[in-house]
Amino acid sequence: MEIDLEGLKARFPRPLLPDEETRLKLLADDALDEIRMAFLKRGRDLDAELATVPWLPIAVAKAVRHMVNAAILVGGNVGVRSVSSATGQESDAITYADVNAASWGGVLLGDDLLDLLGLGRSGARGRFPRPLRWPEAGMSRERW
Question: Residue 71: which domain range?
Fold first, then answer.
C-alpha cells in the first residue's frame, strides 16, 4: 500500500518545515511497518486483507495520517505535560507524563488505532462458567 504524501502534507494543520518534509516519507513508511507488524503479531496478513476487506485501506490511511501527524507535531516534546518559566531569579519547570500519542523514536501505534484497524483487545470470547464465590461471602458475621 502506498501513502499519498501530497495528500498527507495537504491535511497537515500547518505548513511543514524543511526538515519535517524530509522526515515525512520515512515516518509514513515507519507507520506502515508498525501496522504490518501488528497484523503479523496476530497471525494476519495486512496485504491480503487490504485486497479483501473494503474498509481496511481507509482505516490504514487514517491511522498512518494520525501516527505521522503526532510524530511531527509533538516532535521533541514527547511526554511533556506542562512547562512553566519565571523571569525573576530564573525558574524553569517541566512536568512529564506517560502519554500515548507519539514516541521518542517516531511513530506510535496506540490502542485507539489498533481498534480502528480491527486489532483491538476485546477480551476473552466464549462461554465460561461463573467464578467461584469467595469463602467469606458464605460466612456469617458471627464467625468473624
Answer: 5-120
Quickly state the pLDDT bin for 40 (edges 50, 70, 90): very high
pLDDT of res. 79: 64
Sign of the C-alpha dihedral computed for residues 58, 59, 60 and 61 taken in this order: positive
Coil, strand or helix at 91: strand
Matching residue, cell 494520525 = 66
Q: Identify whether the C-beta of residue 114 lies closer than 8 Å to the C-beta of residue 120.
A: yes
| CB atoms near residue 102 (< 10 Å) | 22
Q: Please, which contacts does 58-61 make with residues 24 or more away whose CB atoms are closer than 8 Å? A: 59/116, 59/117, 59/118, 60/1, 60/32, 60/35, 60/117, 61/3, 61/4
Nearest to 38 by CA among 100, 117, 106: 117
The number of folded domains in the chain is 1
144 part of a folded domain: no
